[in-house]
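Researcher: Please generate the 3D structure of the following complex. Treat every line as part of one assembly.
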Amino acid sequence: MKILIVEDNLLLSEEIGRNLVDNHFKVEQAATLAAAEEKCALYQYDLVILDLGLPDGNGLSLINSLREGEIMPAILILTARNSVEEKVKGLNLGADDYLTKPFHTAELNARIHSLLRRRNFDRKETLEMGPLSVNLPAARAQLGDTPLNLTRKEYDLLLYFMQNPDRVLTKQSIAEYLWGDHIDQADSFDFLYNHIKNLRRKITRAGGGNYIRAMYGMGYRFSI
Amino acid sequence: MKKERSYSLLSKTSAIYLLFTLVAFLAGGLFLWNEGEAFITRNLDHRFTKWEGRTRHHIEEGKPLSELPRFISAIPLATAPDSSLFPIYSDTLIQNAELDEMHRFRKKTILLEAGGRIYKVGILAFVEDFRRLQDDVFEALVPAFVLLALAILVFNLLLSGYFFRPFNRILELMRTYKVGQKTKIEQVATSTSEFQVMQGLFHQMLDRIEHDYRHLKEYTENMAHEIQTPLAIIRTKTENLIADDRVMGHQAENVKVIYDETSHLSRLSKTLNLLTKIENGEFNKVEEIATRPVIERHLRAVDELANLKSLDLNASLSDQHQLVIDPFLLDIILKNLLKNAINYGTPEGPIRIHTDPQSLIISNFGAPSEVPPEKLFERFQGNPTPNNHSLGLGLALVQKICDLNDLRVAYQYQERQHIFSIR
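Model: Done. Output below.
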């Protein structure tokens, strides 16, 4: 799985790249529109993570030139411009998703996973980890052979954890993933605690271990 | 301060013009009257002098006094009266028997010394014609003035529509002008130099405003954008630290603070940016929205949150309730009011969401707010406690959106309920 990061800020580009390499992706980086166009002409990528505000032009124009190619990679726009019009424009041009800065690394991972799945690059229909398996099209999870009767939010939560294993996910990142901005931070943490508690209980009741661990009062780590 | 009454420029100029015309007419009338008087006096003096001469002549020739013309009377006096009293002028009315009319005469009484005797001579002069003429002139002035006044009024009324059309058109353009609209403002054709000057200045002003607006907008946007990338780096770096047990073992509290404050800063700049965009009227895809499906969608989104706080959502929605607003802004209003209600709601009673054809009401139970009601909609008036990272911008956003869309948002506290209504 090959990903191109188009981002002019090298620090951020490196940081995203390192995270993706940790997730077993092959990563290349381009800091300018010209470099990105050159790379896209030479190589085939499965996913392009695209910043819009590039020093030599608007990232949106890359989408246009990508559309001329034979196989269009999935495109995830990653930008500081939080405007509805830009978003609509990007998605209309053929981008698959849109994430605004600053983002949570875990959120980026989750988006990439679901995007690649949606685009059918990742043909796996189940996500497995130890005794846990998740049937993605059916949105069902089971532990061994025991189905876990999860609510929609608990399922989302489990998926988010499984897409970011062995990583501390902050409460903020999880809350934003689950509820968007429908809620103020402080309250959401109590709700989150409830969901985590229920998810944990359902897994242990089905015979699993305590996979979700609270870390420093800041977040949770999922590991098997 | 007392509000002064205002009048249209045209009525003012007309009134002043009429006043001046009136003064001019009065002055003219006075002048004519005086001229008439002077003419009559001169004319009569001439006649009186002539008749004095003839009377003296008549007496000196020794003709009997009775042969003097009818309008001259001469009485010989035995003793000479005080000559400083003469001549005496007087106006009299004399009956004309033939015409049965009273006629105006002027009488000059003099002392005449002729043939060694002193006579008291009275001479009558017919002035009726003069006076009639004088009256006629005066009487002609009044209708002339009235006619002129009427003409001015009618003229002004008719011409105001014509002359002031470009002016009103320019005013209309000013009224409907919106900053940042990018549409070219039409040039109103006018040959009136004042209007041309005004229009010129108006266009200059627009250019300046547009220029400033563009700069401010660019600045805000750049500010909001440029700050996000460094924030993204700080956040990912901090998340790296959080993932590192060696660091967190010693510095968990510090890292937590850095992380939380970064998030706060990020949301703050995003929300302020949004507020600026709303103020600049960038969300102008206004449409008529039936609110029921929108509210229901929002209720589904917050249903779970409400349940977790043991709050009931009690909705009574009307299909007739409509708002004319950009759908994105309606989302922000609903999101913030519901967030607010869930945040501060207590399980004493349900959160009520009510719409009827005229209004939208969202209420929740709770202790009275510590923020005075009149300050509730101001920015940063919430009371951020250490574990409450509320931005304090939610209600300010709601207020701003309502202001820009001619909606009235109101707050009241009644029977332990916080009630927000939008009409």
